[in-house]
Amino acid sequence: MEELAKEAGIPVRTVRFYRERGLISPPRREGRIAWYDDHHLARLRTITGLLERGHTLTGIADLARTFESGRDVAEVLGLGGPTEETPVRLTPEQLADYFQGETSAENLATALDLGYLATDGDEIVHISRRLLDVSSELVREGVPLATVLATGRRVREHADALAELFVSVLREHSDEAEPPQLRPLARAVMDAELSMALDRRLRRENQEGREGQEGREGRGSQEGQENRDGPDHPESPENAGEPSQSPAS
Prior knowledge:
Layout: H1 2-8, H2 12-20, E1 28-30, E2 33-35, H3 38-52, H4 57-69, H5 73-78, E3 88-90, H6 92-98, H7 105-114, E4 117-120, E5 123-126, H8 129-140, H9 145-172, H10 182-228
Antiparallel strand pairs: 1-2, 3-5, 4-5
């Protein structure tokens, strides 16, 4: 344990405390000798790194349990990994840096469930560089990671339905299991349709915003006119008395 603590740059009592809290796994024992390995050292460095990033020990313990319950990368990719996406290997500390304070056990569990993340020893593997970059950018823009993941789940449902549609259409008119034009044609159609859908949605919002502004201005103008014609206005009907009579000459 002394050698492990020295390598990790922390006191022996801290290693012992982490062991008692279940933050590191028990050592391999041979008689009275306890053997700690690179896995233990990596875990200690991860704990230190996450503490430096503001995580609590309780939060780190929750993250560790979630990691350990996640699917192994071989299992995820064995199901059929992405053919056009680049997986990214990350340490837990690097993942925390990507999502600044948003790497809770709940968010991690959701990402593992969706198959965005998998574990490989002491490392984490994200299945898609593009999705990782987009997700972290959304978080930097102020969108909570939980919302990003929930949206990703909904997008996947629509994407699966669209994939089914394109595959059915092209296979109906082709003898090949995967027609070579399938992916480029599907991407081109979806890019164009999504672009036009965004145009329609934003135009509708802008139109509704203009109409709302015009309505508010109209009401404000009417209220202003009513105030001018109120009881205190000299030309209002309430103040209009009989015409004054000039003195008889």
